[in-house]
């Protein structure tokens, strides 16, 4: 029969090894994800998804002769920040949607 002190010591060693292995596995998976270049090249979301209510409001207001004009515009800053600004400003008196779009989006340069 194995004395209880030795049994506890063996169990403690196994628990420590298991904990270290789990920690190493966790760090290995984080570093593999960080080193994976494909994770940096996500497909951008379409403007109707990315801009949600702003996109819908611009399209419904018919600010442009066709529906593609706004979709082709390039955000001048982080689209999520533009959307947050829009949500804060849209209900203020005197809000001008066309001006907001012109300030925050640029038409792509042709040719």
TrEMBL record:
Keyword Acetylation among UniProt keywords: no
The keyword Hydrolase belongs to this UniProt entry's keyword annotation: yes
Molecular function GO labels: alpha,alpha-trehalase activity
Keywords: Glycosidase, Hydrolase, Signal
Protein name, entry field: Trehalase
This enzyme's EC code(s): 3.2.1.28
Domain of life, source organism: Bacteria
Species whose genome carries this gene: Salmonella enterica I
GO term, biological process aspect, one: carbohydrate metabolic process
EC top class, as a word: hydrolase
Signal peptide: 1-34
């Amino acid at each position: 029969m194995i004395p209880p002190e030795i049994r506890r010591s063996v169990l403690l060693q196994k628990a420590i090894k298991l904990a270290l292995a789990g920690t190493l596995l966790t760090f290995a998976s984080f570093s593999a994800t960080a080193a994976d270049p494909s994770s940096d090249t996500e497909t951008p979301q379409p403007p109707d998804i990315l801009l949600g209510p702003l996109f819908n409001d611009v399209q419904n207001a018919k600010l442009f002769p066709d529906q593609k004009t706004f979709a082709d515009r390039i955000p001048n800053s982080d689209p999520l920040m533009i959307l947050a600004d829009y949500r804060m400003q849209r209900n203020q008196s005197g809000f001008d949607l066309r001006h907001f779009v012109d300030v925050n989006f640029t038409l792509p340069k042709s040719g």
